[in-house]
Design goal:
single chain; alpha/beta; Rossmann fold; six-stranded mixed β-sheet; four-stranded antiparallel β-sheet; 9 helices; globular
Length: 277
């Protein structure tokens, strides 16, 4: 297949199994979302696919095995943005984004004109150019998140693995960042896999979803199918309302109902409640 495929992925730490026999297929040109409650194994699964966490199973790109984890060859293929945007040194934002070009440079080579153009473009697209000369350690959480995303984009990898990229952003920036990731998939034909907590954003941006709980994939398929499934209520333990606002899909948890009784509000959907917005 043309895309990223992980099969039999299992992550163990001591006696604990954090991800158990997970399978993931992420086609080119699409956004694949990973959803599930806290502690379900979403970030662990993404880190295993990225090669930063030891695991059993295999990960292939376009039907070929990936280069070894930590190699420059792999870094040219996989761009990974972790959940926590750590910054330990007071280097400028521009220099931080320039680090995304390292896998493409030869030994002792500096940045080429093309490299600098790519860096400028990545900062423009993430709206981080306005603080390009600021030390990254002085940025707010949202600014730092955008700078780190720019660094990953500067790598121009065919695969982008992004863990909760909008957690520190205001609503407007959330929509902008997710639209940017959507464009990376649809316009630039990249493979985008993103961990999300916001189910409405997942409904709006993702082509397909993996629902994970306690380390196992509960359901995988088109986003509209997964978000309409009774498995959503079973995994999160609350009923959900589904609707549309200004033709934008909305998925929101509802209060005051036992999830096991959620189906009574809509006779055609077992285990679901619907709302009109």
């Amino acid at each position: 297949m043309s895309g990223l495929e992980a099969s039999g992925l299992t992550v163990r730490i001591g006696a604990r199994t954090l991800v158990d026999d997970a399978h993931l297929v992420a086609p080119r040109g699409q956004v694949t979302g990973i959803i599930g409650p806290n502690g379900a194994g979403k970030s662990t699964l993404l880190r295993a696919v990225a090669g930063v966490l030891p695991h059993d199973g295999r990960v292939r790109l376009d039907d070929a095995p990936l280069p070894r984890p930590g190699s420059r060859a792999r870094a040219r293929l996989i761009g990974y943005l972790p959940q926590r945007h750590e910054a330990h040194w007071p280097v400028t934002v521009r220099h931080t984004v320039e680090l995304g070009r390292l896998p493409h440079q030869g030994l002792f080579e500096g940045l080429s004109h093309r490299d600098r153009t790519i860096v400028d473009d990545a900062m423009d697209r993430t709206d981080s150019g306005g603080f390009a000369e600021a030390p990254v350690t002085t940025l707010s959480g949202g600014e730092r998140a955008r700078a780190m995303l720019a660094r990953v984009l500067a790598g121009q990898t065919p695969v982008l693995l992004v863990d909760e990229p909008v957690a520190a952003l205001d609503p407007g920036q959330q929509v902008s960042v997710m639209a940017l990731l959507r464009a990376e998939a649809t316009v630039h034909d990249r493979i985008v896999v993103v961990v999300l907590h916001d189910l409405s954003l997942a409904a709006r941006i993702c082509d397909q979803l993996l629902l994970i709980d306690r380390g196992r994939i509960v359901q995988a398929g088109p986003a509209s199918v997964v978000l309409e499934s009774p498995d959503l209520e079973a995994v999160y333990g609350v009923p959900f309302g589904r609707g549309r606002v200004c033709d934008v899909p909305v998925v929101t948890p509802l209060n005051g109902r036992d999830p096991s009784d959620a189906g009574s509000a809509h006779p055609d959907r077992q285990g679901l409640r619907s709302i009109s917005l």
